[in-house]
Structures are given as structure tokens and as C-alpha cells.
Amino acid sequence: MAILIIGEKPSASKAIAQAILKQTTFTPTKEHPKIEGKGIDGKDYVITWCFGHLVTLAHPEQYDPKYKTWKLEHLPIMPSKMKLLPIPGKQAQLAYIKKLAKSSEFIVNGCDSGREGEAIFQFVLEYLQIQKPVKRLWTSSLTVEAIRTAFAEMKDGKEYTSLYQAARSRAEADWIIGLNGTRVFTCKHHDKFTVGRVQTPTLAILADRQHEIDHFVEEDFYEVEVIFKQVGQDFKGIWQGPRMKDRSMAETIVQKVSGQMGTITSYEKKEEKNNPPKLYDLTLLQKEANAKFGFTADKTLKIAQKLYESKKISYPRTNSNYVDQTNIPFMHQVFELLKKTTYAALVAKGDKKYVHIHNKHICRPEKIEDHHAILPTENIPRAFGSKDEEKLYDLIVKRFLTHFFPPAVYRVHIILVDVKEESFKTTVKELLQSGWKVVYTEESDEGPLVENFSLDPSQPVTCQKAKILDKKTTPPKRFTEGTLVAAMQLAGREVEDEEAREAMKEHGIGTPATRAGMIEKLKATQYITTKGKHLYVTPKGMALIALIRKSGIGLLASPTLTGQWEKRLNDITKGATVDGFMKNIQKFVMALIDQTRNMEVLQKQTTTKELANCPSCGGTLFKNSKAYSCSRWKEGCSFKIWSKINGKTLTEKNVQDLIQKGETRYLKFKNKNSGTYEAKFKLEDRKTGDVSVQFRPRNN
After folding, report:
1. For the chain, which domains are there?
2. Which one, of 606, 600, 608, 635, lies nearest residue 619 by Cα?
3. pTM of the shown model
4. What is the per-residue pLDDT across 294-321, written as a single tens digit (0 to 9) for each?
């Protein structure tokens, strides 16, 4: 009997096949001859994949049809046992996996190493009721060497049972809170409000920052800057004292010190080492790609995933900036291979001696959970799928190369000068050794550096010039997607409970893999918008956070909830029972529902636009981000016209024509070959909003 290996995605499965079978030839089955790549067939092993999630938790209507209609009296919805449901379009792959499993001796879980990968695999086995023995292939790299090493060290799948229980508990808890919270807020306040354990505290971070900015009061203040001179050396000094809000005070100081002699009262010189920046985890990569290239967090994740699937980089969905001792030889190998690339000039200046197991700026095994930092692999690319892939790869390689250089070394001069009883401070940074900075020479954001700076502290200085600097206080910076994912990662710092904060230390709000998707969800639900790189909270988003905090359920908008969850999920991973965790979730949801039912109804805050009366029920038709929907949807009206049909985005005029005339005029469409054709939309069903596309007849 063959052994079945199930990977998470086709790309990962191809890499496993290359390492184990030394081939990646697809063998479509007779049952599915038109579906490319159902599996890879070897003599002793058959390899297939999950395409990510194949199975998810069932929707409420799968438990009772009445839940199709959203009503307060239906809440809470808390199934005693959660059902699993195939994701639409994935049934054929599930059937194929079941067929292979029947004739397999045992199954290898080759999904991504971590809580989510465990859930993807176990959901499939549970839904298909497969009872075969399981072994776990655990690797964070898709290189041939890494896969073969992991294959030789596979453990019994039962050793990961607690990891799956934690993953399952997290999924069920998110389902219970998100579903009940969204329905109770929506039904109570007669407007679509989505809430969730990750989504809502993320929105709160943005709302709090926006509140600070909106209520910021700008104030003027003044500084005095002077130019000192000693034989052969000029340097600037800034007046030391409380912030000056009175310009006349600054004018008095300028007049007092201009042209006067000063005394050096303190002169400190010290050497500082600046170590290379941390290797990338996903959050840091998203932050820097956003700052340098304007990539959204979601775009960076998708590009990084493509680079990983083509084996150009290691696993990107990591929260670690470190490697362990087993990665050091691999890093040396990649360094050598980069000598034959466009990075050759940089590599020639570096040295492998700086990358070793005792370098705590790189090698910290205790800091790694499931995956090490993002690294380039030995599969050096000859070409890229896009310019954006090349840009992101360049970021990763350069960060990798910085660690093959010594620290940058500076001599810092800190000088205090007294002039007529007024004190001025100077800080001068002198570069002694560039070290790793040579990697970023062309894009250095370093402040001004000096060479050969020298003063005699026993000699006086002359105040050659003094001037007033007009300053203004500035509000906090508005979040970008890059700074938001960083804030989500660090949200655990706000958690007061020490144990919960410790559990969140490496997690924050969400995970590296889910934060980008959460930002996209906040956009889709119209809680936030973007202007350039910056994120803005809509009136609806601000209203939701204010509402939650006034209601007595403020924990829903706080990272404390995630902190408590992570602590308990960590306990489950270590062997604690699931029951206590789920009972606490149920208690929280009951309190959430009770508090919300007793609220005053919120005056509607919406970013949707009223268009026309619904042709099905007479309600009001509104435009949102994805569709033109009836305001009475929660009462059972199913009328909806999607915003994009057949690749064409409908305008408000198009929708009004559909409702009033039953069809639009002929519109121009683009086809796959960059040509054009004409067609019109026709409203086929005034109950549901179903729309057809009718092509203009060709002239004979």
C-alpha cells in the first residue's frame, strides 16, 4: 500500500514530491481528467494537497433554516457540537483525498507547520471520517534538504493533538463571538455591524489614534539654535530649558548670547556599536514594504507567498526575527551562492565569520515558535514573476546580507556649553566604521555625520550666530498599513494581566498570517478608508467603538481579550482541557447579548448611499462596497445586485436603469485579448435581483 502525503497547497506539495520522489509530474485521474494536478503519483508515495482550507465550520442555517433570517430572539446561537462544511468548489478534491486515503497505509500531514496548518489537515480528516494513522512532516522550509531532514524525523500525529485542539477551539470561539456579536449589534441598531475578537480591537487602535488627531490642539513654541566656533571646528548647539511658548523670551536669549564667548562645561566622548537590523518576520517585512514601496499589508503577504511557493524564500508567515543553530550552515550556503549574482559586490565585502551560533542578534532558538525568520533560499532566482516580486526579494536579501558584516561603529560627542549663564547642548555623531551600513549606502536615512571632529574642552568657544527656530507641536502620526500591523503585533503591551501579556508577547492582535486580511475586512465593511498610504476611520467605525465602550462590554474592543485567549490556548497546547475555555467564551457571549439588548438604539451611521426603492419589497436600496442591497435584508428581503458582473463595474445609473427600465443601454466590455465587445445588463428577477448579460447581435 502506498503512503499518502497531504500538503497545504500545490506548490508545497510539488516541493515535497521533488524531495521525496525526485519528480513533480502530475497524474490527472480518470474521474477528473480535466483537472490539472489532482496528485503526484510515486511508487511508494502519493502526494496531494488541500488548496489551503477545504473545510470550514458550518453556517448557522446548517443547524436550523430559521437562522437564515437575523432576529434577536434567535440569539445566542451556540451549537453543542460544531459541524464541518466543504468550502464551495472544493468537493472534488475532498473526494479525491478520500479515495487515496482508503488505499493508503498511513497518511503524512505535510501542511504548514503551525496551529493553522494543523487545523487545515485535521478538518479534512474529521469531515471525511478518515481513521488512518498519521505522521507529521514538520518543516518551515521547502528546500530539498530541509524536507528530507524533516521527513526522516517525522513524529506520530498524535503528538500534535493538543495543537489541533487549540486551533479548533480558536476557530469555534471566533465563530461564536463573531456570529453572535455581529447579529446582535445589527438587529439591535438596524444597521450592518460586524464585530469580532480580532477585528474590533484593531478598529479600536485606529479609532483611538483618530480621536487623538481630531482633538489635537496645535501650539507654537520656540527654540534657540547657535553656531559655536573653536579653532578649526564649527558645531551647532540647542538651548536647554523648559519649552518656550513666549517668543520674546527666545529673542532675549538670542540677544544675550550672540557674539559672546562660551565655556565647555561638559564634554563626553563614547563609542557606540549599531548592530545589523533584525531579520524579517512578516510584520516587519510588511511595515518596510509599505514605507518603501507603498505595498498594502495584503499585497506584501501575497508576494511573499509567491516567492515562498517558488522556493525563493523560506516560510513567510512567521512571527520570529531569529534562526536556530541548524540554519547557520544554510545561511553560509546561500551567502556563497549569492557570489554569482548581482549581489556579488556586496557579498565580496562581507564575511561568514559574523554568522555563527553564538551571535545572539541572529541565533536565538528560544525565540522561535513554529518558524524561523524569513531567509532567501539556495534556489537563487534567475527571473521574477513581476517587478514587485523583485523589489520584495531585494529587501529580504539585503537584510540577510547585513548580518555578514560587523556592527557600524560611531564616536558620539556630547557637549554642554555655557554662554552668559545660558546652557546649550550639542550631540555630534562621527562614523568610525561603516560595517553593515554598506549594504544600504544608496538608501541610507542616516542623519548628518561628521569626520575628524575634535574639540579642546579647556579652551573657550565663540557664539558666532544665534537664531530662533519657530516650532509647532504635532499630532500623533496617522496609521499606515505598515505601522498598523506593527501596532497589532505590539498590542500585548497594553494588556495589564501579566500572564496574558506574556502569552501575547509574540502574538499581539491576530497572527502574522491574518493581520493583512483583517485590514482588508475593515475596508470591506466600510469601517475604514484609505487616502494615499494613510488609514481613516469612517463615522460608522467610530460610532461602533464608542457604542461598545459605553455599553459595559469594552473588553470586546480591547487586546486584553486576545491576551486572555492566547494564554488559555497556550495552556490547551500544553495539555489543558478545552471545556473551561469554551465555557468562558459562552459566558462572554451571553453577557455581550444581554448588554446589547439593553442599549439605546444607535442613530444610524452609515457610509452607504441611498439610491432607489427596492423593486421586491419597497424598502430602500443602498450601495455598499460589494453590492446594491435592500435595507430590509435582515427582515428576509433577498434583493441584491452585485457591483461587478462579468468583469464590469455597475454605475449607480446602470442600477437605476435596471430597476426603472429593466435593462441598461449597451455597454462596452473588454475581453481577455484586450479587445472590446458590447453587451447590456437585464434584470431577470425583481425578487432576488438576478441580472443577465445580453450581447449585442452581430451585423450580418
Report:
1. 2-170 (3.40.50.140), 171-214+478-597 (1.10.460.10), 220-275+408-472 (2.70.20.10), 282-402 (1.10.290.10), 609-695 (no CATH)
2. 635
3. 0.76
4. 999 999 999 999 998 888 999 898 888 9
